Amino acid sequence: MPREWYEIRVEGRLPEGWSNWFEGMDIRCDPDGDSVLSGYLPDQAGLHGLLARIRDLNLKLISLSRRSRERATDER
Q: How do residues 3-18 score in pLDDT, each as one tens digit?
């Protein structure tokens, strides 16, 4: 099963150095004050683990979107 590209938006600013806490995903902060985690996850278990970490840190999940590898590459 191919890896999928995910983009997860949470409320508040996360330090860029927290990337390792979030499966190595890139972290960027939007001007509106939200943080966006983006990158490939190996499988559904990886996604659920990442969502559990977001929950455990008491972060507010705003949105989650998934894209195929081809579509994510085209949009970058």
A: 899 999 999 999 878 8
Rounded CA separation 3/16 (Å) = 23
Cα–Cα distance measured from residue 50 to residue 47, given in angstroms and rounded to the nearest whole number: 5
Report CA dihedral (75, 36, 7, 40) to the nearest 10 degrees: 90
Residue 71 lies in a domain: no
Number of domains in the chain: 1
- Phi, psi of 62, deg, nearest 5: -100, -45
Low-confidence residues of the chain: pLDDT under 50? none
**Domain range holding 54?**
4-38+46-65
Q: Has residue 30 been placed in a domain? A: yes
